[in-house]
Design a protein that fits this description.
This protein is of the alpha/beta class and 343 residues long. It folds into 2 domains: 199 residues, Medium-chain alcohol dehydrogenases, catalytic domain (Quinone Oxidoreductase, Chain A, domain 1, Alpha-Beta Complex); 135 residues, 3-Layer(aba) Sandwich (Rossmann fold). It is built from 10 helices and 18 strands. α5 links the parallel β12 and β13.
Length: 343
């Protein structure tokens, strides 16, 4: 089968011909119908987050059709439409048994530590398959597995509740989902911060107040709009030192700041003025949980979460085109989400 693979940091991905993966008795083989290209994939290619083993097929946002099942699989059947939870876990350790499976002692992330979805086929444990309703296209189902799921988990971590205000830093694939989910969780006002007018226009359509960080100081603007109070929840989804600092500075009394974006650079914090003085909480949000995904998919099916405008482009399984998308992501291009659709 064809697969587009990582061959080393700061090197272009390459198209390889590799065997169709074998499956165990509790595994399934999925014919890939859609694989999202995430900003994390650009970080992997750039060496910001190490990939192993090498070579490795990237791609952790995957949806497709079950092609083959192991002898002990009972939760899905051949022909089922599925999207895939990207963390392959043991299901038995302390973290798995307490619902924090992203910290499984044996976790392997698709497209990071085991072969992912930039390929014609992928094999995963059957427990990682989430049924994808007919109402949701494969392209949208794929993005639910990372962009939307990560946003969903971050909002749950933030403990946002009805009547609170939220600032989302970054209006890309994660941010657009976060805006909608924050409103669904009861946020009375959502501010979307970005420097791309196209993304901000979409954020406005989803009910956010757009703030262009190129034109105004985002912190001062939000403080002005909130009459100096700041927000109850700030979520940083870009991974830049500047926006992380802004998210902290915009939090009001007893505010919660959730950091989602990946960065290789540390940030400095004014401990008293930014954290202790107002009892601000700084919260890390890492991935998401398997148990969160069925509800998220149902929210998408019922259009509580609209992903129809988040996928802005589809491309074939082609190394040159995929590398170009990763180049654009490194420059923070206007595309919200590009999805690979193998022939």
């Amino acid at each position: 089968m064809k697969a587009v693979r990582f061959v080393g940091a700061n090197q272009p991905l390459e198209m390889h011909e590799i065997p169709i993966p074998e499956i165990g008795e509790r595994d399934i083989l999925v014919k890939v119908k859609a694989a999202g290209i995430c900003h994390s994939d650009a970080y992997y290619r750039a060496g910001i987050s190490p990939v192993r083993p090498i070579p490795l097929t990237l791609g952790h946002e995957v949806a497709g059709v079950v092609e083959k099942t192991g002898s002990q699989v009972t939760n899905v059947q051949i022909g089922d439409r599925v999207c895939l939870h990207y963390n392959l876990t043991c299901g038995d350790c302390y973290h798995c048994s307490t619902g924090n499976d992203q910290f499984c002692e044996k976790v392997l992330m698709l497209g990071h530590y085991t072969n992912g979805g930039y390929a014609e086929y992928i094999s995963v444990p059957a427990r990682n398959a989430i049924h994808l309703p007919d109402e949701i296209p494969f392209e949208q189902g794929a993005t639910l597995m990372c962009a939307s799921a990560t946003s969903f988990h971050a909002l749950r971590k933030s403990r946002v509740k009805a009547g609170e205000t939220v600032a989302i830093f970054g209006a890309g694939g994660l941010g657009q989902s976060a805006i909608q989910l924050a409103r669904a969780f009861g946020a009375i006002e959502v501010y979307a911060v970005d420097i791309n007018e196209e993304k901000l226009n979409l954020a406005k359509q989803y009910g956010a107040i757009p703030i262009n960080g190129k034109q105004v100081d985002a912190v001062e603007e939000i403080k002005k709009l909130t009459k100096g109070k700041g927000v109850d929840v700030a979520i940083e989804m870009i991974g830049l030192e500047q926006t992380m600092k802004q998210a902290i500075r915009v939090a009001g009394v007893m505010g919660r700041v959730v950091i989602v974006g990946l960065s290789s650079k540390p940030i400095q914090i004014d401990t008293y003025n930014e954290i202790l003085g107002n009892e601000v909480e700084l919260i890390g949000s890492n991935d998401h949980h398997l148990q969160e995904l069925p509800l998220l998919v149902e929210m998408a099916r019922k259009k509580i979460l609209d992903t129809s405008r988040i996928v802005t482009k589809t491309i074939p399984l082609d190394a040159e085109e995929i590398n170009q998308v990763l180049d654009d992501l490194e420059k923070f291009s206007s595309d919200v989400r590009t999805v690979i659709v193998p022939a």
